[in-house]
């Protein structure tokens, strides 16, 4: 199984800033205070009728709901230790979802016989809770005992409860971790390795745990034994357990997140922690064939390795001398390539590699002192994702997709390389008259930036085409082609153009693409986005009157920067669950976690850069802003709804027309269930039709 260090989530070494004394809307930072919620409900009451009373809304919602709840979707199955398949499924009858299982043979038949493991709708009803599924971590190799993570309303913080997947019931007297942003792993059937808020205040300033303890079955939390401690200035600490194929523990490691991208790894031994000799920008990706596999996000010059390399170490040697590691090169991507995923089967190392944002999968076998590789025979010019890798054998489940190509699911043997197509999603929209092009824009500093354009084949280059441009640009997250089922039905079929930009900040060309836009270099990300926007206009694919943009979270920040820096380029801006106040962000929600990405407002040079683009501080009266649509969720305990709330309040103060929707549940996804997701999508596309097609 893939082992990514989750401790690097939302991190930062920083001097935490306080709320500015002159911020008139600081009261909106009380996430569920009566005054902010009253304000949000009033905004919803004002904005929603302007969209839902549009004659197009009902049809858009019906189409979005049909897609979201379709029963002929491809199940996201994963291998379980007993050879069965499991997935979490939602549809119109199971809005919250069911965790279920079937055999591989039954699944192959095309009409699988499912057994429900846990019904979340029934559980929520019986317990009177708004449970949202966060997943399950099961004890290898049987995968019978599982730690089920349940979130109240979609928050990142969740309750963890032990569940017997065979009996289909919570374990009486089993493990329970109270609501927290906890990190945990099974050590054995009677022991967990856990990082959580053991006592009040045992959290980093980012709001994540930093103390790791072993917790025995039946043991009260206050009797757990400490095995590792980070620091409050860290982001979080993540325990991980490496296992042999038979489930035996090979090593226990604590990953200490110094900031979002810099981590230390400590081998936990009976004599205490031992720090591993790794650069801080490195990620443990897995363990297979006795080798510890690591990706590098920075050069390791003294060892001869480069940023983007995939390397490995003999785990026995690592354990013998953690302070002096000798690695070997597995894969060095070219300038046009990026390692998107790494997974391990029982005997194989598997890599999803992208070249100019087009995917392939490589299977590596350990032969003596070296790795040999082969490429799996999968569709070309596609996005290929590793959905699951078996620890029991060398099988993989892969997902293959493209903008106009319905997603397909494949079973492959990483050893024999013989893929078998298991399922194909039915077409959700008519793409027979559509095409996909990859074009390139030139950014301000001369960097070439790729983007994909999805449109009708007979697209007229006269600047009249309603065009939606989507981008993210941060945190090493790649925007690879994916079946545009909702955009296809709600936008492309109706004559719109859909564009995805692969701007810097993402991982489309590996760590170098991401590192180029960090902190003081942040404007490169935004300049890339403006360059793509201008290129679309210069090619007469669209015009400012017909160009709209959309982005969420870090992409919502991107939208805010575009609104305040280059409003003349756009006539629609969808700002989803955004960051917006980049001077105050370190004290809002989990914002302190992201100093490694954006910089610290307590450091003068970084504050100056943040001030130069922070949308909240750069909103001004008397500008020609388009009417924007802001979306957030009350339950978003990651970015925090205050960003969107304060943005809307400032727009209102300056007399601008805008739309605002705050989902009272939903977490950072802004939707707690499929009905809410369909509603949000229908609202967005109604707005886009109003702004760009009318």
TrEMBL record:
Secretion signal span: 1-18
A GO MF term: serine-type endopeptidase activity
Peptidase S9 prolyl oligopeptidase catalytic domain boundaries: 490-692
InterPro entries: AB_hydrolase_fold (IPR029058), Pept_S9A_N (IPR023302), Peptidase_S9_cat (IPR001375), Peptidase_S9A (IPR002470), Prolyl_oligopep/macrocyclase (IPR051167)
Keyword Hydrolase (UniProt): yes
GO CC annotation, single: cytosol
Domain of life: Bacteria
Protein name listed in UniProt: Prolyl oligopeptidase
């Amino acid at each position: 199984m893939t082992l990514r260090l989750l401790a690097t989530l939302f991190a930062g070494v920083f001097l935490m800033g306080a709320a500015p004394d002159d911020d008139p809307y600081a009261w909106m930072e009380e996430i569920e205070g009566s005054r902010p919620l009253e304000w949000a409900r009033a905004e919803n009451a004002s904005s929603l009728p302007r969209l839902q009373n549009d004659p197009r809304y009902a049809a858009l919602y019906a189409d979005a709901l049909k897609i979201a709840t379709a029963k002929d979707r491809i199940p996201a199955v994963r291998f379980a230790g007993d050879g069965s398949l499991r997935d979490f499924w939602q549809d119109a009858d199971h809005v919250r979802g069911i965790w279920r299982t079937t055999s591989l043979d039954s699944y192959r038949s095309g009409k699988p016989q499912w057994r429900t493991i846990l019904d979340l709708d029934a559980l929520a009803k019986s317990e009177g809770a708004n449970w949202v599924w966060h997943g399950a971590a099961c004890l290898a190799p049987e995968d019978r005992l599982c730690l089920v993570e349940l979130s109240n309303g979609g928050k990142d913080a969740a309750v963890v409860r032990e569940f017997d997947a065979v009996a289909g019931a919570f374990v009486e007297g089993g493990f329970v971790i109270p609501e927290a942003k906890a990190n945990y792993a099974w050590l054995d059937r009677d022991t967990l390795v856990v990082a959580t808020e053991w006592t009040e205040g045992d959290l980093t300033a980012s709001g994540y745990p930093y103390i790791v303890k072993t917790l025995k079955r039946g043991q009260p939390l206050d009797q757990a034994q400490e095995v590792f401690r980070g620091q409050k200035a860290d982001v979080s600490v993540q325990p991980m357990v490496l296992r042999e194929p038979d489930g035996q523990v090979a090593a226990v490691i604590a990953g200490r997140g110094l900031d979002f991208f810099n981590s230390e790894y400590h081998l936990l031994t009976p004599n205490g922690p031992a720090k591993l000799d790794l650069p801080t920008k490195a990620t443990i990706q897995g363990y297979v064939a006795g080798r510890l596999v690591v990706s590098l996000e920075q050069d390791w010059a003294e060892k001869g390795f480069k940023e983007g390399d995939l390397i490995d170490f003999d785990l026995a040697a690592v354990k013998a001398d953690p302070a002096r590691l000798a690695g070997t090169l597995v894969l060095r991507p070219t300038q046009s390539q990026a390692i998107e995923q790494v997974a391990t089967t029982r005997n194989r190392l598997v890599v999803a590699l992208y070249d100019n944002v087009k995917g392939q999968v490589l299977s590596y076998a350990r032969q003596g002192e070296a790795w040999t590789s082969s490429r799996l025979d999968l569709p070309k010019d596609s996005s290929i994702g590793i959905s699951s890798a078996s620890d029991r054998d060398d099988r993989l489940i892969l997902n293959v997709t493209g903008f106009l190509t319905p997603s397909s699911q494949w079973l492959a043997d990483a050893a024999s390389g013989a893929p078998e197509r298991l399922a194909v999603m039915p077409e959700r929209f008519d793409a027979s008259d559509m095409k996909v092009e990859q074009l390139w824009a030139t950014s301000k500093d001369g960097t070439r930036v790729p983007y994909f354009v999805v449109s009708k084949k007979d697209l007229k280059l006269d600047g009249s085409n309603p065009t939606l441009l989507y981008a993210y640009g941060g945190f090493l997250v790649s925007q690879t082609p994916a079946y545009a089922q909702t955009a296809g039905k709600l936008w492309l079929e109706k004559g719109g153009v859909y564009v995805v930009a692969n701007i810097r900040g993402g991982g489309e060309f590996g760590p170098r693409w991401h590192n180029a836009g960090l902190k003081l270099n942040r404007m490169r990300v935004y300049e890339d986005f403006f360059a793509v926007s201008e290129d679309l206009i210069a090619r007469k694919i669209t015009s400012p009157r017909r160009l709209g943009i959309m982005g969420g979270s870090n992409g919502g920040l991107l939208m805010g920067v575009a609104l305040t820096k280059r409003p003349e380029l756009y006539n629609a801006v969808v700002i989803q669950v955004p960051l917006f106040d980049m001077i105050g962000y370190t004290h809002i929600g989990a914002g302190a976690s992201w100093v490694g990405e954006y910089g610290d407002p307590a450091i003068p040079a970084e504050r100056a850069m943040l001030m130069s683009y922070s949308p909240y501080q750069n909103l001004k009266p008397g500008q020609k802003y388009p009417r924007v649509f802001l979306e957030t969720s009350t339950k978003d305990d990651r970015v925090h709804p205050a960003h969107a709330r304060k943005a809307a309040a400032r727009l209102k103060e300056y007399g601008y027309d805008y739309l605002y929707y705050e989902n009272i549940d939903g977490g950072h996804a802004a939707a707690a269930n499929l009905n809410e997701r369909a509603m949000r999508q229908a609202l967005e596309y109604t707005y886009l039709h109003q702004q760009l097609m009318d």
